[in-house]
Inverse folding.
């Protein structure tokens, strides 16, 4: 594939082609805007009569017909008056024209074939030769300019590539992604649910989903405990003043859930956890001998997301956040940050993700100093420290301006999943600002008051989003240590049911934490095995007359591989080792 800028230009041109085809088919339609995006392009229209996805093949055919005549694309500058005349019956274009003109922008229109559009540019020169393959993907509703107070338009999504081979490869990846969609697999494996009575963006986790969350939490706690990280617990709300002091009330002003008590006190459902943790630190006097203090917690926080942006587990209103904060001296920053990086490495190695990642050194945008809190000298020191940590640990962090948190720079770990998608998950952040805002202090060796530094860490981030990513990464076939049902006992008939229960009891004695089920249904053996495979159960223990006679079980893996007959003791030893090691292999 050619470079990204070229691909964006090709897709922007394809958006014009889409608009041209729509206007040929439905001349009364009003086109609005149609940008290129990372995965393709879209164009928003106001149709006189609604269209459906069944109309997409017809639009594609018209696009292919028009493309044959799009040999070049030309542009020219126009005055606001001329631009309005070109789009005389289109109030959306008029709004854009007035806005651009008031900002002093030069107005340009681009033409290919008989189609002309108001546009800033960014196109391929010879569309007929360069657009090798395109595909319209879906239709959705979209408010004009993203404002829910405006008219709802029809958005048509598509994608385009220089060659048909690239298009076909992408479409195959899309099909695989649909099969792995966390909403689909989550329902099949009974991991979570939503209820209109509870509300949008408020997921309900079933026993199966809760097991996975607990195992992830246990893994984090076990690894963190090696570095003397201490668990804490905080409430789900606080006075608004807490977040005004931290600066989050301003940042999340439009996303806060406000709670008014019967006594006229105003509270906020917590949008973040770090301000609460500062108050645990502030609850008693601190000495340099107490530092570093390392807190960790998995707790829920809340954001009032727009209803139209909520979807599955990736965008929710109740967010269970893996959060950790270390309070330390300046001299302790390097070692503490490095230890957090080591926790990240161990945790993601257990999921098979470490190594297929890169690290971002997320720093301030120098053009927007008002977007951050804290003193410039502290920011410079923190950014230099993270660069040093990256160098010493061989992280090869890539500097990304404008990606810092409001209170400090950070190292963001970008992991690639099995579909090649990049996911920002773990983070390490240095914060000089918040301890100062809350007046946190400790007494140093000379008896003087000093301000501690605060390190923020998130290993997996949001449990909801992380579970969605894991479901799609593993396609529901979770590692043994994570899977809600690790072992399925499958008696061939009722004659082996009593023996199966004895085997269950024996395995539980050998491994008390095992998650095991018995299929007592009256189905055939093949159906029972197929059901266990559909649930991605790691181990299936088939029990027939022969196994009962030999006091064994016949072990099958979900991959279809057979391990043959093993005694309960042999099987328990295997599963204990694999689980304790958090092995990815069965």
């Amino acid at each position: 594939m050619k470079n990204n800028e070229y691909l964006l230009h090709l897709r922007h041109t394809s958006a014009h082609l889409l608009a041209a085809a729509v206007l040929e088919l439905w001349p009364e339609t009003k086109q609005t805007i149609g940008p290129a995006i990372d995965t393709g392009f879209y164009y928003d229209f106001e149709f006189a009569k609604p269209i459906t996805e069944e109309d997409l093949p017809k639009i594609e055919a018209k696009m292919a017909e028009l493309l044959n005549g799009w040999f070049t694309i030309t542009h020219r500058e126009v005055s606001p008056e001329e631009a309005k005349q070109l789009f005389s019956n289109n109030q959306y274009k008029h709004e854009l024209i007035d806005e651009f003109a008031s900002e002093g922008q030069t107005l340009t229109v681009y033409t290919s074939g008989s189609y002309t559009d108001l546009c800033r540019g960014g196109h391929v020169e010879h569309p007929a030769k360069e657009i090798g393959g395109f595909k319209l993907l879906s239709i959705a509703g979209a408010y004009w300019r993203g404002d829910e107070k405006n008219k709802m338009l029809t958005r048509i999504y598509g994608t385009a590539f220089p060659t048909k081979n690239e298009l076909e490869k992408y479409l195959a990846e899309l099909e695989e992604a649909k099969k792995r969609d966390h909403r689909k697999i989550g329902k099949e494996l009974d991991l979570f649910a939503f209820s209109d009575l509870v509300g949008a963006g408020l997921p309900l986790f079933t026993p199966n989903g809760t097991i996975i969350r607990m195992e992830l939490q246990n893994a984090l706690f076990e690894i963190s405990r090696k570095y003397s990280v201490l668990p804490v617990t905080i409430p789900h709300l606080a006075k608004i003043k807490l977040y005004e002091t931290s600066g989050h009330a301003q940042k999340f002003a439009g996303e806060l859930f406000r709670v008014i008590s019967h006594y006229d006190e105003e509270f906020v459902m917590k949008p973040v956890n770090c301000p609460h943790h500062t108050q645990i630190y502030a609850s008693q006097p601190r000495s340099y001998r107490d530092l570093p203090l390392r807190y960790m917690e998995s707790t829920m926080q809340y954001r009032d997301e727009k209803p139209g942006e909520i979807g599955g587990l990736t965008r929710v209103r109740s967010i269970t956040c893996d959060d950790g904060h270390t309070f330390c001296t300046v001299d302790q920053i390097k070692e503490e940050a490095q230890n957090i990086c080591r926790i990240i490495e161990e945790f993601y190695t257990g999921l098979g993700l470490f190594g297929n990642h890169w690290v971002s050194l997320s720093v301030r945008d120098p053009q927007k100093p008002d977007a951050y809190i804290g003193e410039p000298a502290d920011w410079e020191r923190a950014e230099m420290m993270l660069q040093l940590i990256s160098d010493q640990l061989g992280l090869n962090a890539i500097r990304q301006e404008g990606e810092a948190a409001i209170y400090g720079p950070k190292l963001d770990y970008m992991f690639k999943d099995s579909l090649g998608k990049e996911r920002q998950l773990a983070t390490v952040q240095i914060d000089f600002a918040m301890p100062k805002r809350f007046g946190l202090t400790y007494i140093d060796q000379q008896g003087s008051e000093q301000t501690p530094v605060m390190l923020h860490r998130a290993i997996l981030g949001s449990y909801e989003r992380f579970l969605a990513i894991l479901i799609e990464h593993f396609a529901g076939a979770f590692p043994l240590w994570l899977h809600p049902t690790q072992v399925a006992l499958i008696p061939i008939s009722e004659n082996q049911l009593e023996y199966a229960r004895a085997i269950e009891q024996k395995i539980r004695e050998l491994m008390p934490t095992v998650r095991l089920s018995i299929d007592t249904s009256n189905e055939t053996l093949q159906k029972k095995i197929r059901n266990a495979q559909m649930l991605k159960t790691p181990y299936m223990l088939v029990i027939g007359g022969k196994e009962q006679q030999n006091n064994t079980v016949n072990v099958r893996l979900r991959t279809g591989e057979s391990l043959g007959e093993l005694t309960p003791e042999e099987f328990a030893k295997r599963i204990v080792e694999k689980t304790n090691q958090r092995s990815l292999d069965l």
Observations:
- The chain has a mean pLDDT of 94.
